[in-house]
Amino acid sequence: MTAPALRRLLDEIGPVDAVGVEERVAKYTTRSIKKGSKVFGLKLAASMVDLTTLEGKDTPGKVASLCQKALSPHEGDVPRVAAVCVYPSMVKHAAKHVKGSGVKIASVATAFPSGQAPLKTRLAEVRQAVLDGADEIDMVINRGAFLEGELALVQDEISQVVEACGEATLKVILETSELETYDNIRAASFLAMRVLRRGDFIKTSTGKTNANATLGNNQVMIEAIRDFYLATGTEIAMKPAGGIRTAKQALQFLIAVKETLGDAWLNNARYRFGASSLLNDLLRQLETQRTGAYQAPYTFSDDSSGY
């Protein structure tokens, strides 16, 4: 049963046509991209990757290796990735390698991935990560409070994290698989966007649940971004994360962005992929396009952390 506060918000912003969403995203998978346009799309996707390692066994050495790959994914004109994403304790190590390079340092905070810690602790973690050199913070919302209809609490916590970020960009993780319905995903998107700044992100997932980014939940969120922009003029960015592992998938997500938000969102300031193994497949496909020879999966190293 939908909590009264959540129902009121849905009445205000409008519900999601779930059947329509599924029909629309099914069409994205039928698009065919050839030759020059495909190479352009593959390079664009590579430039949008937040190269990620989020394991309990992360070390400064592993982060250094990740940073080197971020700075130089492959020879030739393959672009650098958008960011490296690490735990707060690893931010200072990432800063040694990429600070000032144009590759951003992102850090998951606010008791990622559960978000189940006192707000004071979560805010302190954000402030420390920024102090250590994080350019971007990926936070998780309190899903339990949201589903209970405590929307003012959820929004106030996001607002306080925005303040704690200072000049750092904030990405608000909805954890879409735990929000249960497209209507809830749309409502959570609006709840976050109303206290975010131009250029901040909404994000699908932590990558730590069984179900992560899909074309469906991505579509609901980018339509929310479109509707919010048309109503307010504020450009909010988007980051699908978790489960996007192939170049083919990435191109389908970019088609969705182009057809829903337009070319203004086709850059890494407004759209990102939270991934690690995705980059390897993008590199394989680019090399295949360059040489005409299919590249085996082991051609490029796999630095994925399951994200």
From TrEMBL:
One of its GO terms (molecular function) is deoxyribose-phosphate aldolase activity. InterPro entries: Aldolase_TIM (IPR013785), DeoC (IPR011343), DeoC/FbaB/LacD_aldolase (IPR002915). Its EC number is 4.1.2.4. It catalyses: 2-deoxy-D-ribose 5-phosphate = D-glyceraldehyde 3-phosphate + acetaldehyde. Keywords: Lyase, Schiff base. The keyword Thylakoid does not apply. It is an enzyme of class 4 (lyase). Gene3D superfamilies: Aldolase class I. The keyword Cell membrane does not apply. Pathway: Carbohydrate degradation; 2-deoxy-D-ribose 1-phosphate degradation; D-glyceraldehyde 3-phosphate and acetaldehyde from 2-deoxy-alpha-D-ribose 1-phosphate: step 2/2. Belongs to the DeoC/FbaB aldolase family. DeoC type 2 subfamily. This is Deoxyribose-phosphate aldolase. It comes from Luteolibacter soli. The gene is deoC.
